[in-house]
Amino acid sequence: MQTQAGLVNTRLNELRAWAVHAYTSLGLVLGFMALVAIVEGRKHELVLLLALAGFVDSTDGPLARWSKVSRWVPQFDGRKLDDIVDYLNYALLPVFACYRFGLVPAPWTPVLFLVLLAAAYGFCQQAAKTDDKYFTGFPNYWNVLAFYMYLLRLPPTANALILLVFALMVFIPVKYISSQTQPFRWLTMSVSAIWGTMILNILATWDQPNLAVVYGSLFGPAYYVGISLYLNYFWPRTRLP
User: Fold this and answer.
1) Average pLDDT over residues 66-91
2) In a domain, 26, yes or no
3) Quick check: is 36 in a domain?
């Protein structure tokens, strides 16, 4: 029979697990606010809100593991909640922003539909996240793509072709690193910190960003793709079967 102290401890653990789920759900609130910003044409606010949503997404996982949410609230699927939030903030809203702000020309609008379908496939496939903590196929970072397409002022047709290529990459079973991937994790975290600092600089100088910082920050996505391909094709036991 559980003691009074044990019962209190169990309730506290359950409360902590629910608090983590509530923290993850904050991404939905930020997503709604970002949607309003898109509709009203407030680009800077949109980017800030999606950046904040990305911060929540990058921190709720460690909190969930530390709180052992699956143990204390087994009846609630936090991973499914996380996928819903991520689809909203990493796929639907960036794609809608591409449409709303003219980053993709009207004749190429079907490419945006393909991106949404590819993103849904990416989230729903059984091997979306491998046991050794890799993503399978391009991991739906459409927010990053839209961010750079806006900053670099690329021709709309070029934007459409870029989105088309990455939509197809969702279906190609190449493994991409995540924050939990172990090989070169210290280097990945270091690069992420530097890249994040540069992004903060861009956000702080949004009206007149330093182009050297904008172009220099591309080393972050370049590293991500490069290290993923290296680990996939040259690192032992990384390639998908």
Assistant:
1) 91
2) yes
3) yes
